[in-house]
Amino acid sequence: MGDQIQFIVEKLNQEPFRKNYNLISFDSLESLPLLQLLSDVLGEIDPKHAVDIREELPEQTAKRMLNLLGILKYKPPGPVSDLSAFRQGLVTGSKTVIHPVLHWLLQRSNELRTRAYLARFLVKLDVPAEFLQDDTVADFNKQYEELMEAFKNLHKEHEQLKISGLSTAEIRRDISAMEEEKDQLAKRVERLKKRVETVQNHQRMLEIARQLRLEKEREESLAQQKQEQKSQLFHAQQRLQRAQVQLKEMQHVVADSKPESLMKKLEEEINFNSYLVTEKIPKEMESKKTSVYFLQKVVAEPAMTQADLTALESERDEVNAEINQLTEKRMIKYEPTDSKFSMYHQQASIISRKKEAKAEELQAAKEEMSSLERQMEQKSSQVHELEGSDVLTEGELKQYVSKLRSKNTFYKKKRQEIAEITAECGILQRTEELLRQRHEAVQQELQAIEEKKGISGYSYTQEELERVSAVKSEMDEVKGQTLDNMSEMVKKLNAMVAEKKASLAPVIKELRQLRQNCQELTQECEEKKIPYDSCAAGLETNRSELEQEVKGLLEECAQEESNYRYINCMKRSLEVQLQRAKEEMKTYLSPEPQERHRALREQYTRIILEQENLGKKLREKQKVVWESHGPNMKQMKMWQDFEQLMKCKRECFLKQQNQAAIGQIIQEGGKDRLVL
């Protein structure tokens, strides 16, 4: 409990409360200041609860605090687990109730602040079921729930963005870099504008250039669309070719098939199905029925023990032995003629069993074939979804292999041509290098001749003049073409402008008539607005006077109500203090010593005497310590010197022992040498 109070005092002395409490002052708080302190802490969590409790009734205060604590999911500790006791303690300002609440709130202030903020928007309003029968109320309620879900999603996104690590410093740096880049681009645009302004008809040329850029973008988009349509056409042609190949194969199969073969296949299938219906399936049904009958019989019987099982097994063994004996007697009794019939019977049974086995194998094969066909259809659909094409058939595969072979031969031929071209390219490079060397030699000779004649640089100047004249002629041709294009474009634009003017002429006439009507209506509106404004101003002044009067009366009522509540609270506190003073006087003036000892005056007097006696003892002890401090320090210094002296003696003794041991070893070594 002491740690809890100390934690509360530390938190209240910090920001944003700054109460400057200590343990004694906090523990001595009365119920009303303690409730006000709890209200301040709740107001820090939720600003709506930052109110003065003197301005509201105690029941309203308790209801408000209980409502917020319920939203914050506070659970009372052990002694006040009863909700009625907790509510009563909160109304009366009991320390056993408020101290744990303050500790819980101050310990989780950040988490609770977020929870209170979310509760403002996520606490659902309880709408009665009979109100929801109205369509308008139901629509509003549905819209309210949708907005609540949208708020949840936005809050989650906000929290994720906060956790994602995007710092404001990085964003500011990016914004500053973008602004610098924007300024640079603006400067470049200004410079380009200044350059363009010197050119004649620059506005017209800029408009033409803008239209040219738009047309180029449109051309690029059209080219992209054309490419997409080409690819779609190519895929469609491929699908058409595959469909045609499949159609040809199916036609070939149908053409090769004869009516006799088809009838034979149908007869075989009919025979197989009739065998299944008449023989196989009835036998299987009969066997299943018998097995079900025996199983039902077994289920109906009571539970069997191990003794019953052993008895049944012994009975089964006896029946099997009897069956074996009867078969042996029958085999001995029958004549040889009957053995032929028995042989035929055995062969027929063997054939019937084989027939059943083959029928089962055929049925299993059909089921497997159907499953494989389903898998093939699934795989083909998957391939069609992934690649947009079906699986190749056998004919398509042959065509594909033949195409690959032709492409392989074509590839080998082109590879040989590339090798020949590479060899020829090497020869041409060598020839070019030789010609370049010869050209350099000729140029050097020409320069030497020009220097001798006194006209150095003549050939270079002539080459430059020829190159410049060629470039000039090309530029003139380009300018002529651009001027022709621009003149054609200007003619087209003028024609378009004339067409637009002609098409807009009736619209402009209608617009003039509408403008005239609009002016007339505006004038009429202004004339009617003057009396309306005067009437509205008069009503507004009357309304403002009434509002001020009502506001003054409300303020006066609120002031009187606050004074009444303050006086009521002060009266209650004075009554409580008067009651405590009466009880104190009663206990103090009581003739019984036990009652007198319970009085606060006696208790505080006794505590003061104890503290004074304790202070005297401590002062005497302090005096004794100060008197013995000097001799004790000298004695401690002497013990330290003694300890240091003993350490030195110990080190000297150890050194002496080591030297003696070394000398003894040397003497023993000398004796050994003498013996040798």
UniProtKB/TrEMBL annotation:
Database matches in Pfam families: IFT81_CH
UniProt keyword terms in alphabetical order: Acetylation, Cell projection, Cilium, Cilium biogenesis/degradation, Coiled coil, Cytoplasm, Cytoskeleton, Differentiation, Phosphoprotein, Spermatogenesis
The protein, known as: Intraflagellar transport protein 81 homolog
GO molecular function: tubulin binding
Similarity comment text for this entry: Belongs to the IFT81 family.
Localization per record: Cytoplasm, Cytoskeleton, Cilium basal body
GO cellular component terms, semicolon-separated: ciliary basal body; intraciliary transport particle B
Coiled-coil region(s): 137-253, 309-389, 483-563
Role of this protein: Component of the intraflagellar transport (IFT) complex B: together with IFT74, forms a tubulin-binding module that specifically mediates transport of tubulin within the cilium. Binds tubulin via its CH (calponin-homology)-like region. Required for ciliogenesis. Required for proper regulation of SHH signaling. Plays an important role during spermatogenesis by modulating the assembly and elongation of the sperm flagella.
Database matches in InterPro entries: IFT81 (IPR029600), IFT81_CH (IPR041146), IFT81_N_sf (IPR043016)
Top-level taxonomy: Eukaryota, Metazoa, Chordata, Craniata, Vertebrata
Superkingdom, taxonomy of origin: Eukaryota
Entry-linked Gene3D superfamilies: Intraflagellar transport protein 81, N-terminal domain
